[in-house]
Amino acid sequence: MSTALDVHVRELAEQGHTLLGGLETDEQAAQALRAFGELVPQYDGSLRYQVKAAPGFEERRYSKSVNTILVHTEAPGWNPPPTYLALHCRVQATCGSGHTELADMRRFVAMLGEADRAALYERDIEWVGHNTGGVGTEGVRRPVVERANGRETLRFSYNLLTTGQYDPPVDASVDPAELPLGSFGIHLAEQAEAFFRENKISVLIPENSVLVWDNQRMVHARSAYRDARRHLTRYWVAAPN
User: Fold this and answer.
1) How confident is the model at residue 25 (pLDDT cuts 50, 70, 90)?
2) Gap between the Cα atoms of 199 and 165, Å rounded
3) What's the pLDDT tens digit per position in 47-66?
4) What is the radius of gyration, based on Cα positions, of the chain?
């Protein structure tokens, strides 16, 4: 008979995400996630990052705002990006929104026309290595889809391709000539966003549960919300080589 861990490992492999329940404390969440790999430091060097609305980010598409966050993978400027991303819900919004949204980027790549799909493998992008606070790595120059050691790693950021920033002002507008892939990047981002809206799953993570997904395969986003009490704790996990 399969153990609970076996079920979660299989779900991660088959659908790219899984939900762990009954985890009330930080320590319980961390221990459960260590079954999938090693917890690794995030942008500020900590193993835990608090996803909660805070003053000063009202006009940005950022984790500490209540605004919509558009489709992306986490830490595309890291080498490699974290294998798994996990969100532990401590206080869920009561406004009926604040969903975590996921879609399988491999399906998006497969549906593209030949020329667009080839560009994802061949055209390098400067994935800067920091967030709004400027903390992080020096970044990497890689294509959207990188093949290495028999595995494909996907990097994506709608914001970077359309504004040149990961966490831009809500009303940001940039000359295409200044963007990482120019007008083609906007074309690609718009296709990805359309695919995402048609194929995403939306999860309102229950309190004391952890949503885990394959960050090198899945793109994610977040719907806007009003209840500023909403509080999730984020973890990055590096799977064993």
Assistant:
1) very high
2) 25
3) 999 999 999 999 999 999 99
4) 17
Tracing tokens 């493998």 back to the chain, one arrives at 121
Measure CA 51 to chain center.
13
Q: How confident is the model at residue 150 (pLDDT cuts 50, 70, 90)?
A: confident
CA–CA dist 227, 219 (Å, integer) = 24
